[in-house]
Amino acid sequence: MSNGLQITILVLIPSVFLVIYFGRKIISRLKNEVEETSRALREKSKLATHLQIKYKNIINMDQEVLKRKKLAIQYNKRILELKEDFEKKKDVYQKLQRTILEIEDNIEMNSFGLYKPHYDFETSEEYKIEMSNIRTKQKEMIKDGVAISCSTEWTLEGSKKEGAKMTKRNMKLMIRAFNNECDSAVLKVKWNNASQLENRIIKSYEIINELGKPNKITIQDKYLKLKLAELRLTRELQQKIFDEKEEQKRIKAEMREEQKAIREFENMQKKAEKEEAQYQDALDKARAELQTAHGEEAKIFEEKIKRLEEQLNEAHSNKERAISRAQQTKSGHVYVISNLGSFGNEVFKIGMTRRLDPLDRVKELGDASVPFSFDIHAMIFSENAPKLEADLHREFDEKRVNKVNFRKEFFNITLKEIEQKVKNLHGEIEFTKLAEAREYRETINLLQVSKK
């Protein structure tokens, strides 16, 4: 190695060490700066994250508003769809409700044996005659061998005679079984089970004929119809007998009412005649005494005579009125009354009485059979009270509370409707609009006080 190279190396080595030394210093300082910068960045990042979290709602407000607007549009659209769907389903629901009510009504009617009459005879005797005719026809069908028939001529062990005996025996058993079922139904029939028993007879007819099918034996349809007719006649005969009894009760009630009215007229006439005779005697005496009286005494007798003449005229008028009312068999009062506590609102009784004091009749109606007294809304005098009552009943026939027993004269109507009909049929009458219902209202108040 030359001296020049050695010198160069010796010169460079310190320089290299210096470079390395200062390089390390610079690297260390840069490293510290990097770490410091990284730490600052981390702090800044944390701060930024914190601020982002803290002010997130503000930062995203526009986006949130836009998002909410879109949701609002979607919700409004959905609400409209739901409303339309609701209206459709509401309509379906209401239709179903009406259907359910109709079905429930039918079920209730069936459970109470709703029965549509097949005959329209005037009296129970006519029903009995028809019943006898029906039973005679049944016997004739059996006697003539047409109630039940066999479509095949059977042989038994090669014998037609034995086959005929077998067929006759089977037919006898079938008709007897069917008759027993029908007789049982007729014995059990009542106002509320006729429809069910009709179905029972038809079912028995079908079952027994099904049993006779292998042997080609059939109970005839005409015989079934006669049995059904017997059942229906039995049921309707019961109803007619009931109606006739109710009609007899009505007539007897009218007769009792009429007798009470006649007694009142007779008593009033007797009382008026007695008063008339007393006043006449007193008047005759006063006139006789006036003949001998003078001055002030004469004036006293003149005033007494005048007073007695007025009383005599009144007694005479009362007697004539009693005689007139007794002779006018159709004159009387039609009353409109209600009983809020017993029957509820807008239920009125429209009845008639010929009593001199019609209030007596109303008091009788409010006896122990109902918890509260009746309130009077109108008392209408008529020369033909039965006709006015019948006309009003006919006008409100569809609104009867009891649609079976017409003796129950209660109607589910408004007072305004009654007032209008009375005006049309009779003329202007003053009506008491509000029912006092004193006992009922006091009872309600007592109940409310007791609950406190």
TrEMBL record:
Coiled coil residues, start to end: 79-106, 248-329, 408-435
Residue spans crossing the bilayer: 6-23
InterPro entries for this protein: Phage_T5_Orf172_DNA-bd, SNIPE
Residue ranges annotated for the Bacteriophage T5 Orf172 DNA-binding domain, each copy included: 342-425
Record's keyword annotation contains Protease: no
Superkingdom of origin organism: Bacteria
Keywords: Coiled coil, Membrane, Transmembrane, Transmembrane helix
UniProt-recorded name of the protein: DUF4041 domain-containing protein
Organism the protein comes from: Candidatus Nitronauta litoralis
Taxonomic lineage of the native organism: Bacteria, Pseudomonadati, Nitrospinota/Tectimicrobiota group, Nitrospinota, Nitrospinia
